[in-house]
Write a structure and sequence with these properties.
Helix content is 23%, strand content 31%. The chain has helices at 13-22, 91-108, 114-118; strands at 26-30, 33-38, 41-47, 53-63, 66-72, 77-80, 86-88, 124-125.
Length: 146
Amino acid sequence: MFFRRERTKVLSFEDHLSKARAAGFNVQSAGGGTRIERNGIACVAKPGEGDVPRVVERAGVVMGNEIGTLTDGGYQKFFRTPGGKSKPAQAHELEAVHNFQEDLRETLGLTTLYNESLGTVSNKYLYDRVKGRDQAPAHKPWQTTA
């Protein structure tokens, strides 16, 4: 008919991954999900609501066989792995992570948030350099010690 609407095709998680493969991403199964990698940058995704991919480990630089997550130290950004490796982030790496995230979102049809489209967003923020400060209960001046 003239006014007939075409039905939208609901893509499965595997369909989304095949679109990523076609766009030049390396897709492989990882322990906790599916690892998507390109040019030394990787992230981990799992099936989300309606089989739309949900990124569970944000994009970071591949360091060995781990993904280094972007950490803001207040004075400098670092890539840190769960295994304890750390290296300072360089401008070309931050640009590569940002481009990877934008390309992956566009390929998978994910929503891009305004603040994330402006630049690279850190995964962790460690502004306080005094270690152990938050571990013990702090004495408040208005409390009396008995």
